[in-house]
Design goal:
The structure holds two protein chains of two kinds. By secondary structure, chain A is an alpha/beta fold. Helices cover 33% and strands 17% of the residues of chain A. The mean pLDDT of chain A is 96. By secondary structure, chain B is of the alpha/beta class. In chain B, α2 packs across α5 and α12 packs antiparallel against α16. The longest helix of chain B has 16 residues. Chain B is globular and about 60 Å long. The two termini of chain B are 41 Å apart. The chains are: A alpha/beta, B alpha/beta. The interface between A and B is large, with 56 and 77 residues.
């Protein structure tokens, strides 16, 4: 079975411990909307103090314009729980992030927005960064077969939690699937009230 | 089978299974604030869903508020809109809210415990990563994103998978001037910023048992800075004594039953942890961050490390970038660096014991020329108590600004920011690039260390100072 989840240009962000304050700084968190964060992504790295694009930042390099797969290093998304971070990354155009590891809250937030986060060993991440050094890369991500495909039949497999894979493939409604257990939730509330009445 | 506290709490909250690896867990307390909730309420409304348990939901205004005056528009137009959205959402859904006019308003992780909303054995969530603070009470408390906030509002539950367990054991006695802040910074330095990813950490040992509830909150607060999903501590007499009589604590007729349940919340002696680490409390000295992530920590009398001293290429690279951003040289002593700003506050260190410790250092002295210093109490209750105890007068007489409660300069969402290139001694929890303002250079320290830096105009080793300060702090605490 094959199911191409994403395909496109890869942008290599060669940094460890990219925190959510870097992904989207605080001044953009006062919005009450879920949209409009694309321009804020990596703001302090992406723009110079005068507001012009920083030509040295990888996202701004012309060869990575239009990238849709973000390749990075360890502990990506650490820090604040702000979901504005995955919103900004997704609204910019990335729907896949490949990294050595992710911070837990950022990982959940991204999955809840339908993004695919792929975790690979350091050796494999090094291998992917090496590929990027050879020139701009166009990859396909097959979620069904769990493979990153480089073209010419070359591919690298990845692991993914079965539940997350199912959610991404079927597009299940996050809240709707829990509401299927509404009767059990009511039962739980009843027994909780009886055994621990102080909880309300 | 033997269980850890985490596993006991997890098991007792399973509503049902969503699939073989994912359980639906019931949430006992949902804390919300203005920044991470508006999109959740919009989503709820769009899907024509309602708030299932407004009685288990509690709101405060903290991230975005001005700490200079109690007005909704004091921190700007977009902030005002966000605060108004929270007020409207709470009013439409019957959710209790500590708004700016309420005398007890404050930082969500300060007011939860103060109001007795935080109790042992609970699952507590909030759209804020420092929700781990509430683990100090033996609750399973963790930060969530806005989609999850919406999920909890709608169902009072959250899908979860079992995390791994990490035991952090700290035995022995802390030296004078060494605080829970120094302890957690030493733990993070040892485990690294990602050392806790995928784990729930349990802190135990004689040093933890000896800590006050406020100290335990500081400790659990920064569990997230090593990536842990949550940090928690077994509840004990200290916990029960703290909760007794709090506004939302179990009422008198239920108190004994509640305590009996809470006393069952310990890790069984033969419970197996996936990872263990032990630290000797007496080996910990006052800590300070030198870099741009919370594992880049040294004892205050040590020199700034050279990138070459890291065998790991990743850490070497991070050190190089951090030194450039922080404007520091390898081998330099932080005591030689001039401090421009001092911030005493945040959900880590804005409680009464923190303010007492800082005031005992400041008493009778003056903030150094050229230093801007502010104290931002964590809540209205802390503020009033500090004023009653004369601490506010000590700070004001020394030249500190005495502010209204809020998150303030920890993340600079309001107008409390550190300017580019300025060096800040901060009692907050994150020294990330740009966290306190673009180009701001943050050094995380304990309240006493921050206070000492304000007086000296540079960092000092509080442990090497005259012992008088410690005596005062000890007596008051």
């Amino acid at each position: 079975m094959s199911k191409i989840f994403a395909q496109g240009l890869v942008c290599p962000l060669d940094k460890n411990n990219v925190d959510t304050d870097q992904i989207i700084p605080k001044q953009f968190l006062t919005s009450v909307s879920r949209d409009g964060f694309a321009e804020a992504m990596f703001f302090d790295w992406r723009y110079l103090a005068d507001g012009s694009p920083n030509p040295d930042f990888v996202i701004n390099k012309p060869e990575y314009a239009g990238a849709s797969i973000l390749l990075t290093r360890a502990n990506f998304g650490c820090g604040s729980s702000r979901e504005h971070a995955p919103w900004a990354i997704q609204q910019y155009g990335f729907n896949v992030i490949i990294a050595e590891s992710f911070a837990d809250i950022f990982f959940n937030n991204s999955v809840n927005n339908g993004m695919l986060l792929i975790q690979l060993s350091k050796t494999n991440i090094d291998f992917l960064f090496n590929r990027c050094q050879q020139g701009p890369q166009q990859w396909q991500i097959d979620l069904a077969s769990q493979e990153i495909m480089f073209g010419n039949n070359a591919a690298l497999g990845f692991k993914i939690d079965a539940d997350i894979k199912q959610r991404l493939l079927s597009g299940l409604d996050f809240i709707g699937s829990s509401e299927q257990l509404n009767t059990q939730i009511s039962d739980f509330e009843q027994s909780r009230k009886a055994s621990q009445p102080w909880l309300g | 089978m033997a269980k850890t506290i985490y596993q006991k709490i997890y098991a007792s909250h399973v509503v049902g299974k969503l699939n073989p690896s994912t359980d639906l867990l019931f949430v006992d307390r949902h804390l919300i604030h203005e920044v991470t909730s508006p999109q959740a309420f919009s989503g709820l409304k769009m899907a024509q869903r309602t708030v299932r348990r407004p009685d288990l939901t509690f709101a405060t205004m903290d991230h975005n508020v001005s700490t200079q005056r109690r007005s909704m528009d004091a921190a700007g137009e977009t902030s005002r809109k966000q605060l108004e959205a929270l007020a409207a959402n709470c009013s439409e859904n019957d959710i209790p809210l500590l708004d700016l006019t309420h005398p007890d308003q404050g930082i969500v992780h300060v007011i939860g415990p103060e109001q007795g909303l935080t109790q042992p054995g609970m699952i507590i969530v909030c759209g804020d990563s420092h929700t781990s603070t509430h683990g100090a009470f033996g609750a399973l408390a963790f930060g969530i994103g806005t989609s999850e906030v919406e999920h909890v509002l709608a169902t009072q539950t959250l899908p979860q998978q079992q995390a791994k367990t990490l035991k952090v054991e700290i035995n022995g006695e802390l030296s004078a001037h060494v605080t829970p802040k120094d302890v957690i910074m030493a733990v993070i330095a040892k485990l690294g910023t990602a050392g806790g990813n995928g784990y729930v950490a349990e802190f135990s040992g004689s040093a933890i048992e000896a800590m006050s509830m406020e100290g335990r909150m500081t400790l659990c607060n920064m569990s997230i800075e090593m990536g842990a999903k949550a940090g928690l501590i077994a509840p004990d007499e200290t916990t029960f004594a703290y909760l007794k009589g709090k506004a939302h604590a179990p009422q008198e007729q239920y108190w004994d039953a509640a305590v009996a349940y809470w006393q069952s919340l310990y890790s069984d002696a033969d419970a197996v942890f996936d990872k263990q680490v032990a630290i000797d409390a007496s080996s910990i000295t006052p800590q300070i961050t030198w870099g741009t992530n919370p594992e880049q920590v040294i004892a205050v009398d040590q020199s700034v490390p050279s990138p070459a001293s890291f065998s790991d290429a990743t850490k070497r690279d991070a050190a190089e970038r951090a030194l450039a951003y922080m404007g520091l040289e390898p081998g330099q002593k932080l005591a030689d660096c001039k401090v421009d700003v001092v911030f005493i506050g945040s959900c880590t260190n804005s409680r009464i014991e923190d303010l007492r410790a800082a005031a005992s250092v400041v008493k009778g002295q003056q903030v150094a020329a050229g230093v801007r210093a502010l104290v931002v109490p964590g809540s209205g209750i802390v503020k009033r108590q500090a004023e009653d105890e004369g601490l506010a007068d000590i700070f004001k007489a020394a030249g500190f600004e005495w502010r209204e409660p809020g998150c303030s300069m920890c993340l600079g969402m309001n107008d409390d920011r550190v300017a580019a290139g300025e060096r800040c001694a901060s009692t907050s929890n994150r020294n990330f690039e740009g966290r306190q303002g673009r180009g701001a250079r943050t050094h995380l320290v304990s309240p006493a260390m921050a206070a000492a830096a304000a007086i000296a105009g540079k960092f000092v080793n509080i442990a090497a100072q005259a012992p008088a300060a410690a005596t005062v702090a000890g007596e008051q605490a």
